[in-house]
Amino acid sequence: MRNMNAKLAASLYAGMAIFFWGVSFVSAKVVLGKLDPFTLIVFRFGIGAVFLFAIILLTREKILFSARYLPHLFILSILGTFCHQLLQTTSLIFIDASSAGWLISVTPVFTVLLSMIFLHEKMNLGKALGIIAAITGVMMVTTAGSSGGWHFTFNIGFFLMLLSTLNWAVYTVLLKSLKIPLEPTALTFYITFIGFLVSLPFIIRNHGWESLPGMTSIEWGHLIFLGVFVSGTGYWFWAKSLKVLQASQAGVLLYLEPIVTFAAAIIILHEKAVVTSIAGGLIIIAGVAVVNGNFFSRRISSFPRIKK
Prior knowledge:
The chain has 308 residues and is mostly helical. The chain has one domain (2-302). 74% of the residues lie in helices and 0% in strands. Helix 1 (2-31) packs across helix 4 and helix 5 (107-118) packs across helix 7. The longest helix is centred in the N-terminal third of the chain and has 30 residues, at 2-31.
């Protein structure tokens, strides 16, 4: 009974983390009405780093590490926080939050391809078919018009979002290869904090703080949500869930993330449900599920998520 209760609690933690990450695209879209991308990520990283540090103090997690890992942390911070969030946040200026949610789920496809090149993962027929399905789904999402038809027009937002998925795949492969000896919460704190420091000069250059007085209470609520719940609590809950659940068990729940984004976009942003986009998104998820196979057990246990 105790073991079952522990698994139930762990599943709840994982589900809450995925809920936060799914809603994050919608919250970012709301805040971008007042803040530029640099200002948004600076405040998000700052709030998240403070919250994560408080969690580390509360749980007394080890935070010391050898100085030889500092260059590794810096590289991971540039990829996993600064570049990744800048690409995603900027893309949301041009595309719907729901489309962003569908596209971000294609990340494992890039991760598998990079793992084949750099980590010598093997390709099989199932993975090949999954990749083809995921690419087909991407084409459907990126070409879906408001009437549900296909319109082949270039949108920089789709390009930036797909670039962010490739960037995250590179980050994942590097994180797996570098093997920094820190617990997930401490590692996420350092990566988030360094990302905050790297982003700080841009808000100074842009005078980003001047936009803060014009924000409404709702927009402030979304910004605090991004920092505390998405960048802070989400990673903490995810790490707690993985102490009980197998990585593959928790990984299955990740397929719910784009669905959460889609639902939140309709409820909060009143985005229209385009049939072609929905079908494409579901095809992406199906393709990724085939591509992953047993890949979840190798992938999820080796990285802290900073994508949202």
